[in-house]
Every structure is written in structure tokens, then in C-alpha cells.
From TrEMBL, chain A:
GO cellular component labels: plasma membrane
Name of this protein: Peptide/nickel transport system permease protein
Domain of life of the native organism: Bacteria
Principal subcellular localisation of the protein: membrane
InterPro entries linked: ABC_transport_permease (IPR053385), BP-dependent_transpt_permease (IPR050366), MetI-like (IPR000515), MetI-like_sf (IPR035906), OppC_N (IPR025966)
Species assigned in the record: Ancylobacter tetraedralis
TrEMBL record, chain B:
Protein name, as recorded: Peptide/nickel transport system permease protein
A Pfam family annotated for this UniProt entry: BPD_transp_1
Transmembrane segments: 12-34, 109-130, 142-167, 207-226, 265-291, 311-330
ABC transmembrane type-1 domain ranges (all copies): 103-330
Organism of this sequence: Ancylobacter tetraedralis
Family per record: Belongs to the binding-protein-dependent transport system permease family.
Subcellular location: Cell membrane
Upper classification of the organism: Bacteria, Pseudomonadati, Pseudomonadota, Alphaproteobacteria, Hyphomicrobiales
GO molecular function, one term: dipeptide transmembrane transporter activity
Length: 301, 341
């Protein structure tokens, strides 16, 4: 089976012999479309590299990310410290690697929180229509109308600054567009013949939503989530920068900028290196998202 | 195509206004929860950990925390309507007075940024739509995707490093040089305008030069968005039959582009601009922190770090309110001005 995935003729066959062959053929064609988009490929490669950095951080790091060495403060990049050291003598390169864990972890946590909420709210509102729809969409509109950063800041301040509250605050302000999207998708699906057929077989509403509507909303949701990841990265970094996200000594990139910014004029690399890391990560997700959108959801482009 | 009757326009307006009312109520409700319900003990955040018990008790009663939640909400609401946002612990001024002091600085920064973003973003968008897939178009694409990916702190720090530290073109942070602080009487709260009113050229130029860099940084993100939207609208408009007709009539390309095609997207663009302006208010929070700009964003952030909840709620309400009203204006402009909707 695995060997066949590298067999172009099998993948591109006009008359697939099995469902698996048809499914893999479709995926292969999407991949071919995607591959043609150079920037998107760069984005994908960078995202994979970032993931690798995050997962392999303990292996790739040359120093411990939190061990201070006050004798070696603010050193420029050298063979000993590839990206120099920060104001407490910690190795910036190693901190960046561990910071990738924090940043990607936060993004992942936000997505895991937000996608199901958006999907559930949107599908329920779109499927049942009527009062449920009106109420759920009103709430969604209220949240959509908020300035996101401000709301998140106030929310974090009320609980306690930290990574968990930052994740919750970002999630709280990020779900509404997904609900809108899922609702729109549901509205186009709910009157389809096959849904009527499923209903005739006696499936409950819950089952229809869960098994027959939600899976179809996933495609556009994934695209939207990928497109939003860079916004979430920037959001998390901004919270960190304002002192409301991950707290020192956490090697979160935004927090690193915040603690190092007073050295901008003399040791500019200390605050700028984590900044460049954020830029690279968010650019990569943007490029990847754009590519995915072009392939999976040409309507939105 | 038939134009809507005035009654129908009015009805739409009514619907929009009522949706604003609901959204505003949501804002008030959410800030109430953030300020009064979520914190484990609002009294502690005001008085600190080591307050005497009788003081804590008095504060509880003063804040109405001994009453049931709906009553507390009602008190909160009536206070809001009277314009009473309480006192800031940090500055010990009324929050309303603080806001009057800080908000004009933010408006000045945001408006200047908006002017930059519009003056550069729209022509870029139009040109890249006219010359699709040209070098310029490629440049605008890269320019705008970088604009979407670069966090404001990073852009702000890089620009400070380059234009202040290395090139020496920009003055340092803050609103005006130390020597000029408090030189002009406050009339509008916009330092550049106040300096002009006072006829003080030195202060004006100094304030203006302090304004440029933060405004440019703040403008970049919006510029990216404006140019992308302009490009998309223009491509759409240039494909229209009336444009082909205008071209066939032998009108000059400039006239076709600016009068016919651009004239047609102006309304949609106005909506985008209003939304962008609302977004600028948020970007201003981070920008102000980098450039030590004494605006509402800095006020908010410093209050956040000191858990000064009255000030936090006041600033949140203000920004939320302005943001929502701008959104509403965008919506109204779109519905009223564009007969097709």
C-alpha cells in the first residue's frame, strides 16, 4: 500500500479500483496543485522546520535555556553562543528553540480550544435555524465587534497574567469567525438531498450534525485556521511583549523582546533575534495558509 | 436597478442602530464581568494584600460587593451613564479625566497613521491592479504579506534602531522633546495643532518629527490591508463593462482608471478605511508602548501591569466604544451610499 503512494500512474488513474485509491488520487492532485506554488512550499518547509526545532529542542540546544551566567551577559554571536547571550547570560539560540515550543504550543492550544467551539456554535445555529440561530449569532456578533487585543488584555489582567490565561483570552476572542464560517457552510449543506436521506433513515439531529455536517465544514475551517495561525502567533507575542502573556523566565519570543528591549541601542541583536523568529514563523504560516486556500478553497481567494 | 425608498433606508438604519445598542450592552456586560466578577477579590486588587480588615469591609460596601450581582450590574450601568468610571488607583485621578488627557494623543497618532496608510496604500493598490503581475504588483504582494506577518513590536524596534540610533533621522521616543514639554497651552489635546494655535513653530516641528516614526510604523500594517483591498476592488471594477465602454469611447487611461473605475469602488473603500481606522486603535496599544507615546494604549498597559482595574475597564470601554461606532459608521456608509446593497 505505502509503495503505491509513490506510483504516479496508480495515483492518477482515471478509473480507480478502490475508494482508497480514489481518495489518495484526489489528495495527490491537490498536492500537485500545492507544489506548483513556490512561496507556499517555502512556508510549509519553514513550518516543518519550526516543528522540528520545537520537538527536538533538547537535542539541538547547546545550553540550558534558563541557566543564568552573569559573567557572560549580552555577548555578541560567537562559536560558543551562536546567537549571543541575553541580559542574564542565557544562550539566546537555546532559548529560541525552547521558545518555539512555547509559541507553537500556545497556537496549538488556541486552535484546539477554538475550532470545536466555532464548529459547534456554527453548525448548531445553521442546522436548527430559528431562535437558536438568532441567539447564537447575536452572541457571535457581539464578540466579533470587540477589539480583540483590548478584550484579551483586560481579560488576562482580571485573572492573572500568564500563559494559560493568555491562551484562554486569545481563544475567547478568536472563535467568532469560525462560528460564522461553520454556520455558512452548514446552511448550504443542510438542505442537500443526502442529508434528507440520512434523516429519513431515522438519524437524530445530533448524529446528522456530528457525522454528516461537521466533517464537511472541516475543509474550509482548516484553511481558515492555518490562515489565522500567523495572527495567533502575533497575538500571543504581543501579549507577551506587553507583559500579559507567558511570564519570564519563560523563553516565549514576545516576552524575550520585552525583557531585552532596553538593550536595543547597544546590543540590538538581543531584542531583535526573537523578533525575527516571530516574523519568520508568522510569515511561514501566512504563505502556507495562502497556498492551502488556493488549493482547497478557490472561492475564497 | 431600483433604488430603495427612504422608509426602507430608515428601517435599515434602525436595525443597524439597534444592533449597535445590543453590541454596546454586550461590551458593558463583558467589562462588568471582567472588572467585578472574574477577579477573585476586586477589593484586594484595589487595596493590596496588606489592607486592614475594616478598610476592606468599607471598600466592599463602597463598591457594592455585598449586594447581589444583578444589583451590582445595575449600579455599574447607572454609574456609566453618569460618566462615572471611578478613580484610578495609580494616578489617583478620575478615570474620565485621565482619558481626556491621554486619548487625544492616541487620536493624533492614529489619524496621522491613517493619512499615511491612505495616501500610500490606495495608489499602490490601484497601480498594482492596473499593471497586474508586473514588478510593481509583485512588490506590493510581498510588501503586504510582510505587513501581515511582522509584529508591531518588531517593526517598531527595527525602525527605532535604524532611523534613530543608526541614521539619526528620527528623534527619540515620546511626544515632544524634553525641552518643549508643557510649552503650549492645551486646547485640542493634539500637540501639533495646539502648537500651531499657539503659533509656536519650534514646538510644532518638534512634535511633528516625534510623530512621524510611530505613525509610519502604525501605518504599515493598515497600508498592507488597504492596498490589498484596493487591488482586489480595482481588478473587479476594471473588468466591468462600463470600463470597457469608457475605454472604447477613447477616454484617456488615467481618466478611465480614476474617474470611472476608482469612482465606483470609492464607497467600498470608505468602508475598508473606517474598519482600518478602528483597527489602528488596537495597533496603537503596542506602538505606544514602544515609542513611550503617552496615549490611551500606554495608559491601558501600565494600568494592566498594576492591576488598576477601574482604569483598565475605562480604557477598554472607551476603545471598545470607538471601535464599535466606527464599525457602525462603516456599515451605515456602505448601506446608505451604495444603492446596490
Amino acid at each position: 500500500m505505502i509503495g503505491r503512494l509513490f506510483d504516479r500512474a496508480w495515483l492518477l488513474s482515471d478509473s480507480p479500483q478502490s475508494r482508497a485509491q480514489a481518495a489518495w488520487g484526489r489528495r495527490y492532485r491537490l498536492w500537485c496543485d500545492f507544489r506548483a506554488n513556490k512561496p507556499a512550499l517555502y512556508g510549509l518547509a519553514t513550518v516543518i522546520a519550526l516543528l522540528a526545532c520545537a520537538i527536538l529542542a533538547p537535542l539541538l540546544a547547546t545550553h540550558d535555556p534558563v541557566t543564568q551566567n552573569l559573567g557572560q551577559r549580552l555577548l555578541p554571536p560567537s562559536t560558543q553562543h551562536w546567537l549571543g547571550t541575553d541580559e542574564l547570560g542565557r544562550d539566546v539560540y537555546s532559548r529560541l528553540l525552547y521558545g518555539a515550543r512555547v509559541t507553537l504550543g500556545m497556537v496549538l492550544a488556541v486552535v484546539v480550544l477554538v475550532a470545536p467551539i466555532g464548529l459547534a456554535v456554527g453548525c448548531v445555529a445553521g442546522y436548527y435555524r430559528g431562535a437558536a440561530d438568532v441567539i447564537l449569532m447575536r452572541v457571535t456578533d457581539v464578540f466579533l465587534a470587540f477589539p480583540r487585543l483590548i478584550l484579551a488584555l483586560a481579560f488576562v489582567a482580571a485573572i492573572q497574567p500568564g500563559m494559560t490565561s493568555a491562551v484562554i483570552a486569545i481563544a475567547l476572542t478568536t472563535w467568532p469567525p469560525y462560528a460564522r464560517l461553520a454556520r455558512a457552510e452548514t446552511m448550504t449543506i443542510r438542505d442537500a438531498d443526502y442529508i434528507a436521506a440520512v434523516r429519513m433513515t431515522g438519524a437524530s439531529s445530533g448524529r446528522i450534525i456530528l457525522r454528516h455536517i461537521m466533517p464537511l465544514c472541516l475543509g474550509s475551517l482548516i484553511v481558515r485556521v492555518t490562515l489565522d495561525m500567523s495572527a495567533i502567533i502575533i497575538f500571543a507575542a504581543s501579549l507577551g511583549f506587553l507583559g500579559m502573556g507567558a511570564q519570564p523566565p519563560s523563553p516565549e519570543w514576545g516576552t524575550m523582546i520585552a525583557t531585552a528591549r532596553r538593550f536595543l541601542l547597544d546590543q540590538w541583536w538581543v531584542p531583535l533575534i526573537p523578533g525575527i523568529a516571530i516574523l519568520v514563523a508568522s510569515l511561514a504560516f501566512n504563505l502556507l495558509g495562502d497556498g492551502l486556500r488556493d488549493v482547497l478553497d478557490p472561492r475564497q481567494g | 436597478m431600483q433604488r430603495h425608498s427612504p422608509a426602507r433606508t430608515l428601517a435599515r438604519l434602525g436595525a443597524t442602530v439597534s444592533s449597535l445598542a445590543i453590541t454596546l450592552f454586550g461590551l458593558v456586560l463583558v467589562t462588568f464581568f471582567i472588572g467585578r466578577v472574574i477577579p477573585i477579590d476586586p477589593v484586594l486588587t484595589i487595596l493590596g494584600d496588606h489592607a486592614r480588615p475594616e478598610l476592606v469591609e468599607r471598600m466592599r460596601i463602597e463598591l457594592g460587593l455585598d449586594k447581589p450581582l444583578p444589583v451590582q450590574f445595575w449600579i455599574y450601568l447607572t454609574h456609566l451613564f453618569r460618566g462615572d468610571l471611578g478613580r484610578s488607583v495609580m494616578t489617583s485621578n478620575l478615570v474620565v479625566d485621565d482619558i481626556k488627557l491621554y486619548f487625544p494623543a492616541t487620536v493624533e497618532l492614529g489619524t496621522t497613521a491613517m493619512i499615511f496608510a491612505t495616501l500610500i496604500g490606495i495608489p499602490l493598490g490601484v497601480l498594482s491592479a492596473v499593471r497586474r503581475n508586473s514588478r510593481l504588483d509583485q512588490f506590493v504582494r510581498v510588501f503586504s504579506i510582510v505587513g501581515h506577518s511582522i509584529p508591531i513590536p518588531v517593526l517598531g524596534l527595527i525602525s527605532l534602531l535604524v532611523f534613530y540610533a543608526w541614521l539619526g533621522w528620527a528623534p527619540g521616543t515620546g511626544r515632544v522633546g524634553v525641552a518643549y514639554v508643557g510649552m503650549t497651552p492645551t486646547v485640542t489635546g493634539f500637540l501639533t495643532v495646539d502648537a500651531l494655535i499657539a503659533g509656536d513653530a519650534d514646538v510644532f516641528w518638534d512634535a511633528l518629527s516625534h510623530l512621524m516614526l510611530p505613525a509610519a510604523v502604525l501605518a504599515y500594517f493598515s497600508m498592507a490591508y488597504i492596498s490589498r483591498m484596493t487591488r482586489a476592488f480595482m481588478i473587479d471594477a476594471l473588468a466591468g463593462e462600463y470600463v470597457i465602454t469608457a475605454r472604447a469611447k477613447g477616454l484617456s487611461p488615467a481618466r478611465v482608471i480614476w474617474r470611472h473605475a476608482f469612482g465606483n469602488i470609492a464607497v467600498r473603500l470608505a468602508t475598508v478605511l473606517a474598519l482600518t481606522y478602528a483597527g489602528l486603535l488596537e495597533g496603537a496599544v503596542v506602538t505606544e508602548m514602544i515609542f513611550s507615546w503617552p496615549g490611551i494604549g500606554q495608559y491601558l498597559t501600565v494600568s494592566l501591569l498594576n492591576a488598576d482595574m477601574n482604569a483598565v475597564i475605562g480604557a477598554t470601554l472607551l476603545v471598545g466604544f470607538v471601535y464599535m461606532v466606527l464599525n457602525l459608521l462603516a456599515d451605515v456608509a456602505y448601506r446608505v451610499l451604495d444603492p446596490r446593497v
